[in-house]
Write a structure and sequence with these properties.
Strand order of the largest sheet: 1-3-2
Number of strands: 3
Number of helices: 11
Shape: globular
Order of helices and strands: EHHHEEHHHHHHHH
Number of domains: 1
Structural class: mainly alpha
Largest sheet: 3 strands, mixed
Distance between the termini: 31 Å
Length: 284
């Protein structure tokens, strides 16, 4: 995940600025042009403790140290993709925060200059994160053992799930601005529906911590409105490119996952899809 929306501009369902002033409340957020204090990032001790705690939790759930290594390594590569994009687009120096039991967050020092930059930052995590699967493919070809392939598959799944257009996942910040071009309420309705579906998936598959986290994020979205950063809106061309890049990134995640599962399914694509569905909680 990436944090590209704090502070934010008011959403279309927030009170009008003059209404806020009428009520006697001061304007929210720092004055335009004011430089926010430099974010020093997460304390190293907290980051290390959080990583070890997360590793232990994954190992306890999966009973596989390879799966735990795959998820932790995949998480860091994914977040580093956001960091590289933020730094390249003038939002850095970006920091990575570890959230025990849930994952990580990349946070920049300033907002993107445009929604297009926000889309690029959002998609950079899943796209770059697929590189984490390469060592696991290499270990499988070098040493053998299907668990290495499962490690590659879970990295692909990590990035694919992050592309779900539900707050606060990366997909919501990549597709949200495109939907807002149609109408802001289209964006809001789509995020609410997709957020509800993802929360239901988490509950139905026993991923309770993830479900609670996503439910809180969804409620926060309903409470505060639009979360896209201040900056130039997407042009028509940028909106088309956003959809195209989103589709290519999602397809790359799916292909990587299938490539990892095909040997385990003896070359059968339906068999690989069935394994993936079983892991994700979709059983025929």
């Amino acid at each position: 995940m990436s944090d590209i929306d704090t502070p934010r501009r008011p959403g279309p369902w927030d009170p009008r600025p003059e209404e806020v002033r009428t009520q006697g409340a001061p304007a929210a957020g720092p004055a335009r042009g004011a430089e926010a204090p430099l974010d020093k990032g997460q304390h190293p001790g907290i980051a290390i403790a959080g990583t070890l705690l997360f590793f232990g939790f994954i190992w306890f759930v999966t009973q596989s140290w390879i799966m735990a290594v795959a998820l932790i390594f995949g998480l860091f590569v994914h977040e580093y993709g956001h960091v590289l994009a933020m730094n390249r687009l003038g939002m850095g120096p970006a920091r990575i925060y570890i959230i025990p039991f849930l994952g990580g967050l990349a946070k920049g020092q300033r907002l993107p200059a445009s929604e297009w930059h926000g889309v690029l930052v959002s998609l950079a995590g899943p796209a770059f994160g697929l590189l984490a699967a390469i060592p696991f493919f290499a270990l499988y070809f070098g040493l053998g053992g299907g668990t290495w392939l499962l490690g590659a598959a879970v990295i692909a799944a990590l990035n694919l799930i992050n592309l779900a257009p539900a707050p606060p996942l990366d997909g919501s910040k990549a597709i949200g601005p495109v939907l807002a071009r149609i109408h802001p309420w289209v964006e809001r309705a789509a995020m609410v529906v997709m957020g509800g579906l993802v929360v239901y998936w988490g509950v139905a598959t026993g991923r309770w911590i993830l479900a609670v986290f996503l439910a809180i994020a969804l409620l926060g979205h309903l409470r505060r409105g639009a979360w896209r950063p201040e900056g130039r809106d997407l042009s028509v061309r940028e909106a088309l490119f956003s959809v195209g890049l989103y589709a290519v990134t999602a397809a790359a995640c799916a292909v990587t996952g299938l490539a990892a599962l095909l040997p385990l399914a003896e070359g059968s694509i339906p068999g690989a899809i069935q394994i993936a569905g079983s892991y994700l909680g979709f059983r025929s």
